[in-house]
Design brief:
This protein is of the alpha+beta class. It is built from twelve helices and four strands, in the order ααβααβααβαβααααα. The chain has a four-stranded antiparallel beta sheet with strand order 1-2-4-3, sandwiched between helices. It is globular.
Length: 253
């Protein structure tokens, strides 16, 4: 238990990997553990696309804004919300599936994220390193083309996986009281915000981000550079179109 606790408390995002391969047996073991994760109604409405080939990685590279880890990691896995398989099973068993709607997408998305995180924990327990790629939902339309995902399947997140070539510094986290509420939600006062974010704002790397981006505050780095409103609106439009194209925003009333 102490060893597992240490794995969770000291985990880091790994973006650089050694050339050592992840064996088929080890990967199968990790996936078997990951797929024991909780799932809505025991439906397992998710799919995992494992990418090892250099050819497909190169096709995925631009989908992930040319992050080198996509081609350098021995394994790349795309986790998808998937009602395609379950709906086909229903039809073949004389049952009428009613999953072409947003709540079903949400259900499948939750399943996909839960299994992804469980796979990540299993991999890290084995000494492997992982990195989440947040670009998946931005470029879902292109990933659908590359991975040939059928209607009813939407990519939610991607991880790179491999043996770490170095151990980076552990990134900061907000204090527990900033994210945990007792009994009911307690809204944040101005002093609360100042207290919870003071350590993050005072870190040398945060001050460097502010300087590099010619901003006054760390918050401005997020709002004006990293996650801009116009980008959020644009990619929201793309994702909504993906949900329509993949059959999750049908209106059959």
């Amino acid at each position: 238990m102490d060893e597992f606790s240490n794995i969770l408390r000291t985990r880091r995002t790994i973006r650089k990997y050694s050339e050592k391969q992840v064996s088929d047996e080890l990967l199968k073991n990790i996936l078997e553990m990951g797929c024991r994760a909780s799932t809505t109604g025991n439906m397992q409405v998710y799919s995992i696309i494992v990418t090892r080939s250099e050819e497909v990685k190169k096709e995925l590279l631009s989908c992930h804004f040319n992050q080198k880890m996509v081609i350098e990691a021995p394994v790349v896995m795309t986790f998808c919300a998937d009602f395609n398989r379950f709906s086909k099973w229903c039809v073949l068993r004389n049952a009428d599936p009613g999953y072409e709607n947003f709540i079903s997408f949400t259900t499948a998305a939750i399943d996909a994220i839960i299994v992804c995180q469980t796979v990540c924990i299993a991999a890290e327990a084995m000494g492997l390193g992982i990195c989440y790629l947040g670009t998946t939902t931005y470029m879902a339309h292109r990933i659908i083309e590359v991975l040939k995902l059928p209607r009813g399947v939407v990519p939610l997140t991607t991880i790179s996986m491999g043996w770490p070539s170095d151990i980076p510094e552990q990134v900061d986290r907000l204090p527990l009281e900033a994210v945990v509420h007792q009994e009911r939600y307690n809204d944040y006062s101005h002093p609360d915000i100042d207290r919870f974010y003071s350590e993050k704002e005072s870190r040398p790397d945060s001050r460097q981000f502010i300087k590099e981006n010619n901003k006054e505050t760390l918050a401005q780095v997020f709002t004006d550079v990293r996650y801009k409103k116009e980008d959020n609106v644009y990619f929201s439009g793309l994702l909504l179109q993906v949900l329509k194209d993949q059959g999750f925003l049908e209106d059959k009333r």
